[in-house]
Design goal:
- This protein has 9 helices and 7 strands.
- By secondary structure, it is α+β, with helices and mostly antiparallel strands.
- The chain has a 5-stranded antiparallel beta sheet, with no helix packed on it.
- A hairpin with a 7-residue loop joins strand 3 and strand 4.
C-alpha cells in the first residue's frame, strides 16, 4: 500500500522487527520482556475476578456472613415441634466465633453456652413500635369541633323560634298535619308504623282480588270452550272471521284488562242462548328475504339480480335451498319450478324461464 507493507495487530503487539533489523539478540530480549508483562497483567486480572465471584457467591450462600461477636441472633429448632409452635428461639448472644461454628448463650444468662453451626442462626431484628399520632390528632380535632359546635335544638323549639320571627305570637297557624303541635308530641314514629301497616294491608287485599279475578277469567274461558260444538265453530268461522295480521317484528296484540273484566260481567249476566263470539283466523304474512318488505322472495322487484340475491343470502347466512337460516345440511327436498334443479331455491334460479315467469307474477314486494 503506497510502497509500504501493512502492519497487523500482531505486528504492533509483538513489535516484530523490520526487514532492515538484523539484531536477533535484542529482538529476543524485547519479546521476552513483553511476554512477562502480559503474564503478570493476566494473573492480576484473574485473581481480582476470583475474589469478586467468591464474595458474591458467599453473600447468597451464607446469609449469616454479618454475624460477629456480640450480635443478637435467633436459633432454628431442627427437632420435631408442635404444629403451631415457632421454629426460631431466642434471642441469643454470640460469645465466640470460629467459622463455621459459633458459641452462643441466652441473653440474660451467660452461664449457659451452646456451640452451633452458622446455618442454624439468623440475625435478630428488634421490633420498632411507632405511636399512632394521626389517630390521636383526629380524635383531638373531633373533640375540639364537638366543643365548639352548638347544641342542636329540638323541632318544637325551632318552630317556636320561627313563629316568633314571623310575628305570629301566641296564635299558631293551623296546618293539615297538626294544630300547632310538633311531630314529637303526637308520636311521629307511631304514625309511620300505622301508615306502613295500612299500606301492607291494602296491597294484600289488592293481590287477593287479582287472584280471584284471574281464577274467574280462567273458569269462564274454560266453560266457553267446552260449551261450543264443532258445528257451531265451523258455522261461525264461515260467516264472521276476524283476521289478525301478525308481523314478523311486531308482537301479537293482547286483550286489555278492562275488556276482560267487562266480558266477565257480561258473561255472568247473559243467558245461555246468547250468540258466542267468533273465532279468530290467523293469516301469516310473507316477507321478502332480500328487501324485507311484504311479498314473496321469488317475485321481488327491489332486488332483481340473481347475483345480488346470492350475496344477500350469503351475508345473512341463509340456506340456498330453503332460504332459511340454519346450520348443517338442508333436509328439505325442493326442486326449482323453472329449471328442475334441487340445489337452489326458485328465487336464486338464473334461467331465462325464471326471468320471464317472474314478470307475470302479481304479488310483488
Amino acid at each position: 500500500m503506497h510502497g509500504r507493507d501493512p502492519q497487523l495487530i500482531a505486528d504492533i503487539a509483538l513489535k516484530l522487527p523490520s526487514p532492515s533489523f538484523y539484531d536477533v539478540e535484542s529482538y529476543k530480549n524485547h519479546l521476552i520482556y513483553n511476554l512477562s508483562i502480559a503474564w503478570k497483567e493476566n494473573q492480576k486480572r484473574i485473581a481480582h475476578s476470583v475474589n469478586h465471584h467468591k464474595t458474591e457467591y458467599d453473600k447468597h450462600v451464607n446469609p449469616n456472613s454479618d454475624v460477629n461477636i456480640g450480635s443478637i441472633v435467633l436459633v432454628r429448632e431442627d427437632a420435631n415441634q408442635p404444629k403451631l409452635s415457632h421454629d426460631w428461639k431466642g434471642p441469643y448472644r454470640v460469645i465466640e466465633l470460629s467459622k463455621p461454628n459459633v458459641v452462643i448463650s441466652p441473653v440474660g444468662s451467660p452461664s449457659k453456652q451452646e456451640k452451633l453451626h452458622l446455618n442454624r442462626l439468623k440475625l435478630y431484628t428488634h421490633r420498632v413500635e411507632i405511636p399512632s399520632l394521626i389517630t390521636e390528632h383526629k380524635e383531638d380535632s373531633r373533640l375540639i369541633n364537638e366543643e365548639n359546635e352548638p347544641v342542636p335544638l329540638r323541632r318544637s323549639e325551632r318552630l317556636k323560634m320561627e313563629q316568633d320571627e314571623l310575628g305570629y305570637g301566641d296564635e299558631i297557624p293551623k296546618t293539615p298535619r297538626s294544630d300547632g303541635a310538633s311531630e314529637f308530641e303526637f308520636g311521629y314514629d307511631g304514625n309511620i308504623k300505622d301508615e306502613t301497616t295500612e299500606t301492607d294491608e291494602r296491597i294484600s287485599s289488592l293481590e287477593a282480588q287479582l287472584r280471584e279475578l284471574k281464577e274467574l277469567l280462567e273458569r269462564n274461558i274454560g266453560e266457553r270452550r267446552n260449551a261450543k260444538t264443532p258445528q257451531e265453530k265451523k258455522r261461525i268461522s264461515r260467516k264472521i272471521a276476524k283476521t289478525i295480521r301478525i308481523s314478523r317484528n311486531d308482537p301479537p296484540s293482547l286483550p286489555n284488562i278492562a275488556e276482560n273484566s267487562e266480558e266477565k260481567e257480561n258473561s255472568n249476566n247473559s243467558s245461555k242462548n246468547r250468540t258466542q263470539p267468533p273465532d279468530l283466523v290467523v293469516e301469516r304474512i310473507m316477507y321478502c328475504r332480500f328487501c324485507g318488505e311484504e311479498g314473496y322472495s321469488d317475485s321481488c322487484r327491489n332486488v332483481i339480480s340473481v347475483l345480488r340475491r346470492a350475496e344477500i343470502a350469503r351475508r345473512d347466512h341463509l340456506c340456498p335451498i330453503c332460504l332459511k337460516p340454519h346450520s348443517g345440511k338442508c333436509r328439505k327436498q325442493l326442486s326449482c319450478v323453472y329449471c328442475g334443479g334441487n340445489d337452489h331455491h326458485r328465487a336464486l334460479c338464473h334461467s331465462i324461464k325464471a326471468y320471464d315467469n317472474r314478470g307475470e307474477i302479481g304479488h310483488h314486494c
